[in-house]
Amino acid sequence: IDLYHVKNNAQYPQIVAGVGDPAWGQLIGPGYMRGAAINSWVGGANSKTVVIGTGPDSTYQNTHGWIFNPATGELWAGSYDSNDDPFPKP
After folding, report:
1. What is this structure's pTM?
2. Of 42, 43, 57, 83, which is most buried by a Cβ count within 10 Å?
3. 3-class secondary structure for 5-37?
């Protein structure tokens, strides 16, 4: 995301809520990512799901793998706290 930001005149990529490569938009392709990022801690079908939000999760969940804030360009792995530590699985 930072590399995209620098290469594109301080614009963040258009990451959108959704599943797989389409959600990652402009980050999929040469010079960036080969495919959607996988959050193995969440696992399953939702490990490639992106939601839009303003901060990291507050507890373990398995509904999404990633949280993106389009206003700030911040990206958090789902089911991780603000210190990038995973929440215990129930």
Report:
1. 0.93
2. 42
3. HHHCCCCCCCCCCEECHHHHHHHECCCCECCCC
